[in-house]
Design goal:
The structure holds two protein chains of two kinds. Helix content of chain A is 32%, strand content 17%. By secondary structure, chain A is an alpha+beta fold. Chain A has two domains: 77 residues, Ubiquitin-like (UB roll) (Roll), CATH 3.10.20; 66 residues, [2Fe-2S]-binding domain (DNA polymerase, domain 1), CATH 1.10.150. In chain A, strands 2-1-5-3-4 form a five-stranded mixed sheet, with helices on one face. Chain A starts with a strand and ends in a 5-residue tail after the last helix. In chain B, helix 2 links the parallel strand 2 and strand 3. In chain B, helix 9 packs antiparallel against helix 10. The longest helix of chain B has 20 residues. Classes of the chains: A alpha+beta, B alpha+beta. At the A-B interface, strand 4 of A face helix 2 and helix 6 of B. The complex binds flavin-adenine dinucleotide. The site of flavin-adenine dinucleotide has 28 residues of chain B, from strand 2, helix 2, helix 6 and helix 7. Flavin-adenine dinucleotide (FAD) binds next to strand 2, helix 2, helix 6 and helix 7 of chain B.
């Protein structure tokens, strides 16, 4: 087969699409579903800008074939409510400059706090190193994750 | 396409060319597809980059539904690590942590948190990129790679092309309870060094070191027999590095520097492993 019918849940809603087998998740989410918070940059799983959650696991959507989302719950930044503690911590603590890495950073942080509600600074730094911020705003990003953890973001 | 530092090719944002997708559920079925020319897809963290670098593929065998490819087990004195085991699963596996804690610790340092959930050790080895650490770790340990066609290959002898069209199923490590393993990667990407000592029945220790850089496939250096690694560390490191080939060098790490840094790192590792 070189096309297939893909069914998955996107930010809580059931969706179905006919896709080529080679469709990459990031492109599908952006082009077909308008999830432009999934940023494309390195296209090789390095920079973290395209991070989405696949059943709660952070993945590089630029290096994940879309068919791997079959039956899964995909969460993009569009599915994270404005009042979400991680999103709020990033906004209130100015943990962004140009903002390009921010969706990926927020989703990475959510995945961390879901696994480890009270991470140490070292654990946060190690985990968040999956995302690159070319504005180098790392200090504020790490602090925002700490603030979100204190605000009970894992709940 | 544009060449950028490190031999990488600048990414294309364009859609990937279509391919025929096979979704086998058994090792036998997957092996048949791979033998017939389909490219194995495990986590995809490297394969997508290979395609963007120009690899042309017509058929893909998705391994995600193949039963029995993942997991770690210890049976009959042999540690078995499934090729489909992700970095996150492998490093946290209780059987591995108990049997060979040095390997679990080293494995836990590979890649970023996000890649660790999907990237597999089989993909790391079979991608054939010198900068990936699997071959150094498992080569130094004297591990055997087992393929679905029944053949095996010492991990140290793995070379990208030679293993195309074969499905890797497991990595086997004999007698892990007799192995002491340590990995030094603080100088990565300039140099990484792995050390494995095997405790013989009479108390002697035999073993080897492996050294690699970002661009060079590992060199494996035998160690003289040891009784007291801490006391004999300097002499053993000197003997090991005397065997490092003179042409083992890359543009970042010259041969003289690799000898000096490798010697110091190995001596330190021998003292630490003894403690
Ligand atoms: C941001 C980033 C950081 C990284 N950092 C490190 C690091 O610090 N150290 C390190 O060692 N590595 C590192 N890596 C590499 C990473 O370990 C590999 O990308 C990963 O292990 C590949 O596994 P995969 O399952 O995704 O393989 P895939 O991408 O699915 O496959 C890779 C290759 O292996 C082949 N293959 C896969 N499984 C099999 C099998 N069972 N039998 C035969 N062939 C097979 C595929 O056909 C393909 O050619 C990094 C990668 C990224 C993206």
């Amino acid at each position: 087969m070189s096309t297939l019918t893909l069914c998955f849940r996107l930010n809580g809603a059931e969706v179905t699409r006919e896709i080529p087998t080679s469709a990459v998740l990031a492109e599908l989410l952006r082009e077909e579903f308008g999830c432009t918070g999934v940023k494309l940059a390195c296209s090789r799983a390095v920079c973290g800008a395209c991070t989405v959650l696949l059943d709660g696991v952070p993945v590089a959507a630029c290096a994940t074939f879309a068919f791997r989302a079959e039956g899964a719950e995909v969460t993009t930044i569009e599915g994270v409510a404005e009042e979400d503690p991680v999103r709020r911590a990033f906004a209130e603590h100015s943990a962004f400059q140009c903002g390009y890495c921010t969706p990926g950073m927020i989703l990475l942080a959510k995945a961390l706090l879901a696994r480890n509600p009270a991470p140490t600074r070292e654990e946060i730094a190690a985990w968040m190193s999956s995302g690159l911020c070319r504005c180098t705003g790392y200090q504020m990003i790490l602090e925002a994750v700490e603030i979100a953890a204190r605000a009970g973001a894992s709940a | 396409m544009m060449r950028v530092a490190g031999g990488l090719v600048a990414a294309s944002q364009y859609a990937l060319p279509p391919f025929v997708l096979h979704r086998p559920t058994t090792v036998e079925e997957a092996s048949r597809h791979v033998a017939a020319g389909a490219v194995a897809l495990a986590g995809g963290t490297d394969l997508v980059a290979q395609i963007r670098e120009g690899l042309a593929i017509r058929e893909v065998a998705d391994l995600s539904q193949v039963r029995g490819l993942a997991g770690v087990s210890l049976a009959g004195g042999t540690l078995r690590i499934g090729a489909g085991t992700t970095h996150a699963e492998g490093a946290a596996d209780p059987a591995l942590r108990a049997a060979l804690p040095g390997l679990a610790e080293a494995w836990g340092r590979i890649a970023t948190a996000r890649v660790r959930f999907t990237g597999t050790i089989g993909g790391n080895l079979m991608a054939g990129r010198p900068r990936y650490e699997g071959r150094l770790l498992f080569g130094t340990l004297g591990a055997l790679l087992r393929f679905a066609d029944g053949t095996t290959l010492p991990a140290e002898r793995l070379a990208g092309e030679a293993s195309r069209h074969r499905l890797l199923t497991d990595i086997l490590i004999a007698g892990p309870e007799r192995l002491l393993f340590r990995y030094e990667r603080a100088l990565r990407p300039m140099m990484t060094l792995a050390l494995c000592l095997r405790r013989e029945a009479d108390g002697r220790l035999s073993g080897r070191a492996g050294i690699a850089t970002e661009r060079l496939a590992p060199a494996f250096l035998p160690l003289p027999e040891l009784r007291a690694p801490a006391a004999e560390a300097e002499a053993a490191a000197a003997a090991a590095f005397a065997a490092l080939p003179r042409d083992f060098a890359d543009p970042m790490s010259g041969n003289a520097w690799l000898r000096a840094a490798g010697h110091a790192t190995l001596a330190r590792a021998l003292k630490a492993i003894a403690a």
